[in-house]
Amino acid sequence: xxxxxxxxTAWKAAMRAVPGILLAAFLTAALPARMVLAAxxxxxxxxxxxxxxxxxxxxxxxVYGYGxxxxxxxxxxxxxxxxxxxxxxxxxFRDSGEGIYLYVLLDISGSMPKSYFKEIKNGILNLQERxxxxxxxxxxxxxxxxxxxxxxxQKTEEMRxxxxxxxxxxxxxxxxxxxxxxxxxxxxxGPEECRRRVLVVISDGEDxxxxxxxxxxxxxxxxEYGLPLYGMCIRDTGRxxxxxxxxxxxxxxxxIITFGAKEGSTVLTDLYDRLYDCTELQxxxxxxxxxxxxxxxxxxxxxxxxxxxxxxLDSRWIPDRIPPVITNAAQTGERQISISFxxxxxxxxxxxxxxxxxxxxxxxxxGAALEDGNNQNVxxxxxxxxxxxxxTVSCKSMxxxxxxxxxxxxxxxxxxxxxxxxxxxxxxxxxxxxxxFSRVIAEGDGDTAGVWFLIFMALVVLIIxxxxxxxxxxxxxxxxxxEVKKEEPERVNLKRFFDLVxxxxxxxPKKARWEIDRSLxxxxxxxxxxxxxxxxxxxxxxxxxxxxxxxxxxxxNSRNGTFADGKRINVKTELKPGNTVRAGSVEITIRx
Length: 592
Description:
Elements: H1 10-17, H2 20-30, E1 42-44, E2 50-57, E3 60-66, E4 77-80, E5 83-84, E6 86-92, E7 100-107, H3 114-130, E8 136-142, E9 146-150, H4 156-164, H5 175-187, E10 196-203, H6 206-210, H7 212-225, E11 229-234, H8 239-251, E12 256-259, H9 267-276, E13 279-284, E14 294-301, E15 306-313, E16 326-331, E17 336-341, E18 345-346, E19 354-358, E20 361-363, E21 365-370, E22 377-382, E23 389-395, E24 399-400, E25 412-416, H10 428-442, H11 448-487, E26 496-504, E27 510-516, E28 519-523, E29 530-531, E30 542-546, E31 551-555, E32 562-564, E33 567-568, E34 573-575, E35 580-583, E36 586-591
Parallel strand pairs: 7-8, 7-10, 10-11, 11-12, 28-29
Antiparallel strand pairs: 1-12, 2-3, 3-13, 4-5, 4-14, 6-13, 8-9, 14-15, 16-17, 17-22, 18-24, 19-20, 19-23, 21-22, 23-25, 26-27, 26-36, 28-30, 30-31, 31-34, 32-33, 32-35, 35-36
């Protein structure tokens, strides 16, 4: 708190005279029931499942948390605001290949005991030595002023020299100013550098206990930047300090760690190891569109029985330079045309946005209905029945739902073939029977025997005509088959075996070998070549195509999309040996 003078109270001095064991027992008994004070150098946890940080860079969303190692795509649902997100996978953070940027804020006021301060400086140096290749350590001190001592580029010996200059004798502290400054520094770190950023404050917690109003303002800063804060509170401090420091830390997504003087040299490296033991969950949104407002992220686990939430500022996105296209147009009724797009688009329900041409003649649409309630498929109802011919479908004033609002491009063609209507054609037998029976009716008023004779003759003629017709039809069909057989080119055998590793969420990887002859359709429907019982997969989700020289994957207008090596595809995409295809909750690595 700016300008506040810290004084050593008589109560604190007296308490330092009490043996450490008695002091720990006193603090534990005095804490509220919801918080149990852990042993020195350990973290106080409130629940088994906790979200530390949600990093959004739409359409990508990364969730870092604890107690989430059993979470899978089958038992989990995630939401950003009202949008349900698509599950992409999960892994241990240690296996993710990512790093952590740690921003350490060190209290250098005179109220920090010398015995602690020396060991804490050793602990910072130990942390510098422990860092991995992708990790960074930024050091900032706060006392009478906020000073940035190390920007993350320093080596171990440089950090040693910096720490040799640090002393704790200031009489004022500017903790909340330090949080503001370091938060702004951390916010400038782009996703290409690091997505996981953590603040660590080492203090006695007095600032937070006394300056509650400023603590709330600092909490808003942490929420805006999406930064979790871990409070490292010395054991030799007041009960209210520990409680306030702990509440402040947990609200940000972090936690409180209490430690004694002897643990000062290891408490930071212990936290570093804990941070790497978290679980990383990966989700995606339907587009990169952001609201630039705080949105509630909700994670429903255990088949919806448990819900964990965290507010996140929805402000970062990955640029989208791919325009939407019409992927398919098909007749679905006497007056209906179904149109599919490569991604959700705006303006789907506006009839005036469609231009339907039959040859050079425009056709009028009178209705537009969204299929399945989404913005990726629409059914147009035409003013009159669709007649045979070639139709061209184009659109105007339609864009994708990205931040860039890329305009829709391209057209689609639809061919409706002539259909033979047997009811409209008169056969020889029809003509003969009509002629004879007309005579029967005309002469029916005369001799009865003559009438029956004419009926008998009509039946004889009808049988002869039908027999001749069947014989001619059979011969024509035989000749046609022979002609087709002569004209049909010999089919080239393109069969090839492909080795696969199939991973489904919550299951062990399985090896398989598939034979592909030109194409292989993957989905949930019984008509597919390969069937997966996966609710995240569409009935006909995607297709693998082999032309004898190269293997391709193409999405079949699936609801959740098809991904090649983590990138959503909108067009036919060539695969290389070792590439991975993801459809729904299934991940397939292909080699040949």
